[in-house]
């Protein structure tokens, strides 16, 4: 039910197609993030309108509310939210960081990591829970996503080499346990006439080159359809992230899609695709949209700035989304200043459309063997300093 076809390579940039039980998607691809089975103010039909081919849901949040039993009762997450295309659910490695390591500044950690798994408290009500490689695979099986993520530990960027090494080896053991559980669950799913699921194990380990290479080789050797690259979008400066991708690219198998987790800026998509990455996701497009910022081909736009008060221009003259076709900067600025939900919705839609279609344009350039020129043209127009 899962098949990856690599159609062309232009330098290290790749264009492919991956088939799943809910249809195929083309790579490179940006996946909108539906953290709790929704993006604020963006409905499912708008995903088709913007050209999205696959989305991501968050296992941790769905487990806490409404619970995997509720989702399973509705015949899985696709039926639950009326989405008919491929879907990925992530494990909750990031929440180990954000609710554990990230709570160390004078606050009691909500997370305890052991060899067997992770003990944690719900951020909703403080109730105690336990996740390990096996039950996280079971939860994702109940959610019925097409693609699921292995259970992993995200070591903080400040980790010393010794701790990072121990965390890497623990995650490798968890990856094997995750894979074994997925195989068991897929046998049960076949017996119940349900489609199989495909597992994404994750390459980790901060910016220690030797550990990244060791992890890439181990993860690539597993009997899975994919390889994910984690934890390069939180601590690291962009040059460090690009350096790690340069180091990892020759270690990753050509016949497996490569998913760089948590990446969602135009410049990072351009540079990561250049380094052989196929898939991306991030909450950033909608998060900054809700706070009045928009992507464009010339750089970031802070729409509430005074200079847009009398601007009759669209957000981006090169963008063909419905926001840029129908609304001016001055009107969008008015909506944001009035704290109107419509303004946040329109900027969120534009930002998602921008990244989804930037990946599609990159794919065309790769298929036509002109990605280097495409990348150069992007940087000739783009001013990264406008983000500030």
Topology, please?
Layout: E1 3-10, E2 13-20, E3 23-27, E4 29-34, H1 44-50, E5 55-58, H2 59-64, H3 68-73, H4 76-81, E6 87-90, H5 93-99, E7 111-113, E8 118-121, E9 128-131, H6 133-143, E10 147-149, H7 161-191, E11 198-200, E12 202-203, H8 209-221, E13 227-229, H9 238-248, E14 258-260, H10 266-274, E15 279-282, H11 284-290, E16 293-294, E17 301-302, H12 322-326, H13 329-337, H14 341-367, H15 371-381
Parallel strand pairs: 4-5, 4-15, 5-6, 6-10, 10-11, 12-13, 13-14, 14-15
Antiparallel strand pairs: 1-2, 2-3, 7-8, 8-9, 16-17
Helix pairs in contact: 6-7, 7-8, 10-14, 10-15, 11-14, 13-14, 14-15
What attributes does this structure have?
388 residues, alpha/beta, TIM Barrel, 2 domains, nine-stranded parallel sheet, three-stranded antiparallel sheet, 17 strands, 43% helix
Report on this model:
This protein has two domains: 30-282, Queuine tRNA-ribosyltransferase-like (TIM Barrel); 290-387, no CATH class. The protein is 43% helix and 18% strand. It has helices at 44-50, 59-64, 68-73, 76-81, 93-99, 133-143, 161-191, 209-221, 238-248, 266-274, 284-290, 322-326, 329-337, 341-367, 371-381, and strands at 3-10, 13-20, 23-27, 29-34, 55-58, 87-90, 111-113, 118-121, 128-131, 147-149, 198-200, 202-203, 227-229, 258-260, 279-282, 293-294, 301-302. Helix 10 (266-274) runs parallel beside helix 14, helix 11 (284-290) runs antiparallel to helix 14 and helix 13 packs across helix 14 (341-367). The protein has 15 helices and 17 strands. With 388 residues, the chain is an alpha/beta fold. Helix 10 (266-274) links the parallel strand 14 and strand 15 (279-282). The protein has a nine-stranded parallel sheet with strand order 11-10-6-5-4-15-14-13-12. Residues 101-106 have low confidence and may be disordered.
């Amino acid at each position: 039910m899962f098949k990856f076809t690599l159609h062309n390579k232009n330098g290290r940039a790749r264009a492919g197609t991956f088939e799943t039980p809910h249809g195929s998607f083309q790579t490179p691809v940006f996946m909108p993030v539906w953290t709790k089975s929704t993006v604020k103010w963006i409905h499912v039909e708008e995903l088709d309108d913007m050209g999205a081919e696959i989305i991501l849901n968050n296992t941790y949040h769905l487990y806490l509310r409404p619970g995997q039993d509720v989702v399973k009762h509705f015949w899985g997450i696709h039926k639950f939210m009326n989405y008919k295309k491929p879907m990925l659910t992530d494990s909750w490695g990031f929440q180990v960081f954000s609710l554990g390591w990230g709570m160390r500044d004078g606050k009691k950690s909500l997370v305890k990591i052991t060899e067997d798994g992770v003990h944690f408290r719900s951020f909703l009500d403080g109730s105690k829970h336990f996740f390990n490689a096996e039950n996280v695979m079971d939860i994702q099986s109940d959610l019925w996503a097409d693609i699921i993520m292995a259970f992993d530990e995200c070591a903080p960027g400040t980790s010393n080499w010794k701790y990072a090494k121990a965390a890497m080896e623990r995650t490798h053991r968890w990856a094997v346990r995750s894979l074994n559980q997925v195989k068991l669950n897929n046998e049960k799913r076949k017996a119940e006439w349900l489609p199989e699921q495909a597992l994404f194990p994750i390459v980790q380990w901060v910016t220690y080159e030797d550990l990244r290479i060791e992890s890439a080789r181990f993860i690539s050797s597993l009997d899975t359809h994919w390889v994910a690259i984690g934890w390069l979008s939180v601590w690291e400066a962009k040059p460090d992230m690009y350096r790690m991708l340069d180091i990892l690219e020759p270690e990753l198998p050509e016949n497996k899609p490569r998913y760089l987790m948590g990446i969602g800026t135009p410049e990072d998509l351009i540079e990561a695709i250049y380094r052989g990455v196929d898939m991306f996701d991030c909450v950033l497009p909608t998060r900054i949209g809700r706070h009045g910022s928009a992507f464009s081909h010339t750089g970031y736009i802070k729409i509430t700035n005074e200079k847009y008060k009398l601007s009759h221009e669209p957000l981006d003259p090169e963008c063909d989304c419905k926001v840029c076709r129908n609304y001016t900067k001055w009107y969008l600025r008015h909506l944001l200043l009035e704290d109107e939900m419509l303004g946040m919705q329109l900027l969120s839609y534009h930002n998602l459309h921008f990244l989804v279609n930037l990946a599609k344009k990159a794919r065309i350039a790769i298929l036509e063997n002109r990605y280097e020129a495409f990348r150069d043209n992007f940087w000739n127009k783009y001013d990264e300093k406008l983000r500030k």
